[in-house]
Design brief:
Blueprint: H1 3-6, H2 11-19, H3 27-37, E1 41-45, H4 52-66, E2 73-76, H5 80-93, E3 101-104, H6 110-118, E4 123-126, H7 128-137, E5 148-152, H8 154-159, H9 161-172, E6 179-184, H10 189-197, E7 202-206, E8 217-223, H11 229-243, E9 248-252, H12 256-268, E10 273-276, H13 282-293, E11 299-302, E12 315-320, H14 327-334, E13 344-350, H15 355-365, E14 370-371, H16 376-399, H17 404-416, H18 421-434, H19 439-464
Parallel strand pairs: 1-6, 1-7, 2-4, 2-5, 3-4, 5-6, 8-13, 8-14, 9-11, 9-12, 10-11, 12-13
Helix pairs in contact: 3-4, 4-5, 7-9, 11-16, 12-16, 14-15, 16-19
Bound molecules: adenosine monophosphate.
Enzyme class: hydrolase
GO molecular function: helicase activity
Motif (Q motif): 2-30
Length: 471
C-alpha cells in the first residue's frame, strides 16, 4: 500500500500526484489530509515550500468528487500571484474531475469575473479585496453553500489590518456550517486565538522547527556603507551570473519605487530582468512572472508581494537588497530558493543602519549568517556607472510620476470616477509608444550603450586577467 493510500486518498488522485512527480506525502500532507477527509477543521503550519497547497487541495478535490456541485470551496490568499498559482494546482490535481476553477483578484476585469462567479465554479480562489468588492457591487452570486473555506498564508490574512474589513464582509456571506482550513508558514497569536475561539474541534499540526529555514539554504550577508549599496548589488549580481550563467535570481527590495529603480538600473547595466510589485498593472505582473518562471528572464526584482508562497522551483539565489523589518518576511523571501530539497543561496545586503535588524533575523531563524566575500576594489570601479544609472532611473521615474502615494491617489480617483485604472494605463502607454522621440533620445541611448559597455568591460577584463574569485 502506498503512503498516499495509507492517508485515505483515492486512486485517481494518487495517479494525478504521480503524474506531477509527487510519489509520497510530505509531512504536512501526511498529518493534515486524514483529519480534513474526516471532516475536521484544520490548522496546518509548516515551512514554505513544504507542499501546503496540496495538503488542502487533495482532500477538497476528493470530497468534491463524491458530491459535485459549485461553488464547493473558497480559498482566500493575500496576493494575486498566489491565487493564480493555487488555482493552477487545483486544475492540475483535479484534471480528472474536469472542474471549474475561478480566480477573483484585483487588476482583472470585474464584469468578466462577475459572469464567472455566476456560473457557479467548483473552486473560487480569491484575494479578499476583490471578492469583497464583488459582494458590495453586485451581489448576484452566492457562496452560501460552500463546504470548505481555506485561508492560505493565514498569518498574513489575519494580521494585516488591511484585510480585516474585507474578510468581515466575506465571512458574513459564508455558511456557518463548513470546514475551515488555515494554512500558514508560522503559528501566530492571531491564528491561535481563532483556533481557540472555534466552537468546533480543530485539528492542529505544526512542523517542529527550531530552525525556520531549510538546511540546504546557504545564508550569507555582505556588510557595506549605505551609500555604496547599489554598487555592491551590481557587483554581486555580475560575479554570480558570470560564474553561474544559467542561474535564476530574485532580488527583494523594500518599496515599489525601489523595485522599479533597480529594475531600470539592471536593464541599463546589461542584466535583463522583470519586476513584480503592486504598482504594476496586473497583466505586467503576471507576464513578468511567467517570463521568469519559464526561464526567459533570469532576474526578478520584487517587493514582498512575491515573498509569499510563490513556487518557482529553479531559483538559485535570493538577494535581499534590504533587511526586512520583520524577521518572518526574511523567512518568506529566502523560502523562494532551496525548495523541495534543492540547494540555494541567500545574500543579504546589510548597511550600518541594519545591524540590529540582521541580529533579529539571526535569532528568529536560529542561524548565524556567514559573511559573503566581495572584492571592494572591484566595487569601487563601478561606483560611478552605477550611480549615474541610478540617477537616470530616478529622473525617468519622476517624469513618469511614479511617486507611489501620488499614483495610488491617482488610481483611487480614477476608480471613484468610474474609470478602470488598468485601461487608462494601457491607453497612456499606447500614446507614449506613438510619440516620436527626437535626437535627445538617440543621445541618451548612445550614452546608455556606452555605460553598459564600460560596465561589462570592467568585468571581462577582470575575467581575462584570470583573477581567482574568492568565495
Ligand atoms: P507549496 O508548499 O504548496 O508551495 O508546494 C511547493 C512545491 O512542492 C510545489 O511545486 C508542489 O508541486 C511540490 N509538492 C507538493 N507536495 C509534494 C510532495 N508530497 N512531494 C514532493 N513535492 C511536493
Amino acid at each position: 500500500m502506498s503512503e498516499f493510500e495509507g492517508i485515505g486518498l483515492d486512486e485517481w488522485l494518487i495517479a494525478q500526484c504521480k503524474a506531477m512527480g509527487i510519489s509520497k506525502p510530505s509531512p504536512i500532507q501526511k498529518h493534515c489530509i486524514p483529519p480534513i477527509l474526516e471532516g475536521q477543521n484544520c490548522v496546518g503550519c509548516a515551512k514554505t515550500g513544504s507542499g501546503k497547497t496540496a495538503a488542502f487541495a487533495l482532500p477538497i478535490l476528493q470530497k468534491l468528487s463524491e458530491d459535485r456541485y459549485g461553488p464547493y470551496a473558497l480559498v482566500l490568499t493575500p496576493t494575486r500571484e498566489l491565487a493564480f498559482q493555487i488555482a493552477d494546482q487545483f486544475k492540475v490535481l483535479g484534471k480528472e474531475l474536469n472542474i471549474n476553477v475561478t480566480v477573483i483578484t484585483g487588476g482583472m476585469d470585474m464584469v468578466r469575473q462577475g459572469k464567472d462567479l455566476n456560473v457557479k465554479p467548483h473552486i473560487v480562489v480569491s484575494t479578499p479585496g476583490r471578492l469583497a468588492d464583488h459582494y458590495e457591487s453586485c451581489d448576484t452570486f452566492s457562496l452560501k453553500k460552500i463546504k470548505f473555506l481555506v485561508l492560505d498564508e493565514a498569518d498574513r490574512l489575519l494580521e494585516d489590518t488591511g484585510f480585516a474589513e474585507q474578510l468581515e464582509i466575506i465571512f458574513k456571506k459564508l455558511p456557518k456550517k463548513r470546514q475551515t482550513l488555515l494554512f500558514s508558514a508560522t503559528m501566530t497569536p492571531a491564528i491561535r486565538q481563532l483556533q481557540e475561539s472555534s466552537e468546533e474541534k480543530v485539528f492542529s499540526w505544526s512542523q517542529s522547527a527550531d530552525v525556520m529555514t531549510v538546511d540546504e539554504l546557504d545564508q550569507r550577508y555582505v556588510l557595506m556603507n549605505a551609500d555604496v549599496k547599489d554598487a555592491y548589488l551590481m557587483h554581486i549580481l555580475e560575479k554570480y551570473t558570470t560564474e553561474r550563467p544559467k542561474s535564476s535570481i530574485i532580488i527583494f527590495t523594500s518599496t515599489c519605487k525601489y523595485a522599479q529603480i533597480l529594475a531600470m538600473m539592471c536593464e541599463d547595466l546589461g542584466f535583463p530582468c522583470v519586476s513584480l510589485h503592486s504598482m504594476l498593472p496586473q497583466k505586467f505582473r503576471l507576464s513578468g512572472l511567467t517570463k521568469f518562471k519559464s526561464d526567459q528572464v533570469k532576474v526578478l526584482i520584487a517587493t514582498d508581494v512575491a515573498s509569499r508562497g510563490l513556487d518557482i522551483p529553479t531559483v538559485d539565489l535570493i538577494i535581499n537588497h534590504n533587511v526586512p523589518n520583520r524577521p518572518r518576511d526574511y523567512v518568506h523571501r529566502v523560502g523562494r530558493t532551496a525548495r523541495a530539497g534543492r540547494g540555494g543561496m541567500a545574500i543579504t545586503l546589510v548597511t550600518q543602519f541594519d545591524v540590529h535588524l540582521t541580529k533579529s533575523v539571526e535569532s528568529y531563524i536560529n542561524t548565524k549568517l556567514i559573511e559573503h566575500a566581495t572584492d571592494e576594489s572591484e566595487v569601487m570601479k563601478i561606483l560611478t556607472e552605477v550611480a549615474v544609472s541610478r540617477r537616470e532611473a530616478e529622473i525617468r521615474l519622476d517624469e513618469r510620476d511614479f511617486g507611489e502615494k501620488r499614483e495610488i491617489n491617482k488610481r483611487k480617483k480614477l476608480i471613484l470616477e468610474g474609470i478602470d485604472p488598468e485601461k487608462e494605463e494601457e491607453e497612456r502607454q499606447a500614446k507614449k509608444a506613438k510619440r516620436k522621440d527626437g535626437k535627445s533620445k538617440e543621445e541618451k541611448d548612445a550614452e546608455k550603450r556606452e555605460r553598459k559597455e564600460k560596465f561589462k568591460n570592467r568585468f571581462s577584463k577582470k575575467k581575462k586577467a584570470g583573477k581567482a574569485v574568492k568565495q
